[in-house]
Amino acid sequence: MKYDVVIVASGKGQRANLGYNKAFYKMKDNKTVLEHSASLFVEDEDCVNIIIVTNEEYFSSVFNNEKIILTTGGKERNDSVRNGLKKVESEYVLIHDAARPFLNKESLNEVKKAVEEHKAAILAKKSIDTIKVVKDGVIVNTLDRNFVYMAETPQAFETKLLKECHEKCKDMIYTDDASILESLGYDVYVVESKFNNKKLTVEADFLDLWLKRL
What we know:
The protein is α/β, with parallel strands linked by helices. Helices cover 24% and strands 27% of the residues. It has a 7-stranded mixed beta sheet, sandwiched between helices. Strands 6-7 form a two-stranded antiparallel sheet. A hairpin with a 2-residue loop joins strand 6 (131-135) and strand 7 (138-143).
């Protein structure tokens, strides 16, 4: 299959307390988080274009590669993804968080296979914790963890389908793309994530031994 990937890298790094976009934090090997997050797509012959969605001020900081297309982010995450989708031309599209630099090839290949079969598929990790629903500081429900998965990226879709769904929901706010399809009644297939695909989010994530500060 041939696909494009949209990598969302337009955050401000507020929860990470960095003072700048966390996608451009340099890891131990002096490569940025973004460069690591994009590395599998650079190497994958099935990937036609890598569409980086980020703030224009960071365009000059993006690593060089012939597959890369740059575009600006929007106010909300789904606005940024929609901007990226305007550049997509392949039959399939993957949406990936720039803050997930540990994706491995096996997981990527499983998601690619699943989207060909199901038109919509995401990587998700089965919960090992007991999940509580809380309102105003009080538990209102306990979910059966056997049915709870933590959504990750990449999330993969038939391009035409995702573009249509984004257009229908352009005035709504969603935290991931699978939610958009779910809201419209489409089935989204889950590929269980079995490896470390951690999202770097809060300050503690950037104190890991694999990382270094500039």
